[in-house]
Specification:
Blueprint (H helix, E strand, L loop, with lengths): L18 H13 L4 E11 L6 E6 L4 E6 L1 H4 L11 E11 L4 E11 L2 H17 L17 E6 L4 H13 L4 E6 L7 H14 L4 E6 L13 H8 L5 E5 L7 H5 L2 E2 L3 H8 L3 H61 L2 H22 L2 H43 L1 H6 L4 E4 L2 E2 L11 E5 L4 E5 L6
Parallel strand pairs: 3-5, 6-7, 6-8, 8-9, 9-10
Antiparallel strand pairs: 1-2, 1-4, 2-3, 4-5, 11-12, 11-13, 13-14
Length: 451
């Protein structure tokens, strides 16, 4: 606006005002009113290529020209058409070229929008107090949903955006549409019923929403019935209502909010190609880790086998020593050995008697000796029987401990390169193998291995 002109003076004392000065003076006068709120009906709405909007505000008796610059017009969220009652905010000014009073509007809303906004704020506070918008209620979306429910109008552009996005990113997903109205008085109950239907269809996640529109077009998603149905849904819900700048109560109650229907599709499913690439990377990583683990396990197994072999060898050596000692004891206690020793003692005694005793004494001595010999033979036989029984028990115990006894029961001892094989996983096809049986040995090569 131009600087205000000086106050006009009487024509008799000064020259007359120029037209431009009069207009500037008038403009300065009306600008003093500042921002004004004016309510009226839209008329003669014009939208030239510049993007500005020219219109009139009228009531029963008057009409006021008005202009809304392009930056303000781009922020309109409702249909700005002739015949609509609106409430606008702006400053009065005088257009210098035509000397016409007009209103420069910087904000507009449908008439009654203030009351509707107050009611919406009250509902928002009420539901927030009940915890319907709390972050702790938000559930994680399934990483790989199998069935996806979509609650929207089958004729709306939002459905196509959602379907194309999901089919492009993850074709195996199954999509179930619950068709419903998304604006108007009948929309809220239809949306609630559609939500109930997709839950009964055992879906893993639900997308609810519609495309962009005026604020009035989105009111179905501010309805208390819809908001409560979204909050009570048994599966996670993604809300995609309007554009990014539009936030409805349904968005606040949902588990996740998407700025657009396309964004909702991107939220609920991953990209199949990316998943496959990740699986390949994970497979290589697992194979590498398994290989390292198997290598360590084989090395540990070899160490344990060597340790066990050492323990077995030591025990076998100890048993062999004990067995040899027992064998020597058994040989010493054998009746033949004792009988030979007794006979040698008797022979020596006979010689002594023959040298020191007369014939009669010799005869008596021989009789006594014969009696002693008979008793000795009986004692030797009894001792021999006892020794035989004891020896048989010891032999049976040794036989039970012998590895050959195990082989006689049908088992075989498998060795590779002289080492005992106890685990099939230690063999690979083509390895040489030697099988020792109770009688004989067989050799061959491994053709197949089952762990």
């Amino acid at each position: 606006m131009s600087e205000p002109a000086e106050e006009p003076r009487p024509a008799s004392r000064a020259r007359p005002l120029r037209v431009c000065d009069a207009i500037r003076w008038s403009n300065a006068a009306v600008e003093r009113y500042g921002l004004l709120w004016i309510e009226g009906e839209l008329a003669e709405v014009k939208r030239p290529g510049s993007g500005h909007v020219y219109f009139q505000l009228k009531d029963k008796s008057s009409a006021l020209p008005a202009v809304m610059w392009r930056t303000t017009a781009q922020r309109l969220r409702f249909g700005f058409e002739a015949g609509l009652s609106v409430r606008v905010r702006g400053k009065l000014g005088v257009f210098e070229r035509d000397g016409k009073l007009q209103l420069y509007v910087d904000y507009a809303e449908p008439a009654g929008a203030g009351a509707a906004a107050a009611a919406l704020d009250e509902l928002k506070r009420k539901l927030a107090a009940e915890g319907l918008f709390a972050d702790e209620r938000k559930r994680k979306l399934p990483a790989l949903p199998r069935r996806i429910g979509i609650v929207t109008s089958r004729t709306g552009a939002a459905l196509g955006d959602i379907v194309r996005t999901i089919q492009r990113r993850f074709p195996p997903a199954i999509l179930l549409l619950a068709d419903c109205q998304v604006q108007g008085a009948t929309a809220p109950p239809q949306i609630v019923n559609a939500l109930r239907m997709v839950q009964n269809a055992a879906v893993d996640v639900v997308i609810i929403g519609r495309g962009g529109g005026a604020s009035a077009d989105l009111q179905a998603f501010n309805d208390e019935r819809v908001v409560r149905a979204v909050a009570a849904c048994t599966v996670p819900v993604v809300s995609a209502v309007g554009h990014e700048i539009d936030v409805t109560l349904c968005d606040l109650a949902a588990d996740r909010r998407a700025s657009t229907p396309t964004g909702a599709g991107e939220l609920v499913v991953p990209v199949q190609a990316e998943l496959r690439a990740k699986l390949v990377v994970e497979e290589h990583r697992l194979r590498r880790e398994i290989g390292l683990s198997l290598r360590d396990a084989r090395q540990e197994l070899d160490d344990r086998i060597e340790s066990a072999r050492s323990v077995v060898k030591a025990r076998l050596a100890t048993r062999s020593t004990d067995l040899r000692r027992l064998e020597l004891r058994l040989l010493a206690a054998h009746p033949r050995s004792q009988l030979a020793a007794r006979r040698a003692a008797l022979t020596a005694l006979e010689r002594r008697l023959a040298a020191i005793a007369p014939t009669a004494r010799i005869a008596r001595g021989r009789a006594t000796l014969d009696a002693v010999r008979v008793g000795l033979d009986a004692a030797v036989r009894r001792g021999l029987d006892r020794r035989r029984a004891s020896f048989a028990q010891v032999v049976a115990r040794l036989d039970a401990l012998s590895p050959l006894r195990v082989l006689e029961r049908g088992y075989a001892l498998a060795t590779r390169d002289g080492h005992v094989v106890t685990d099939a996983a230690a063999l690979t096809p083509g390895d040489p193998i030697e099988l020792r049986f109770a009688r004989g040995t067989a050799r061959g090569r491994i053709t197949d291995v089952e762990s």
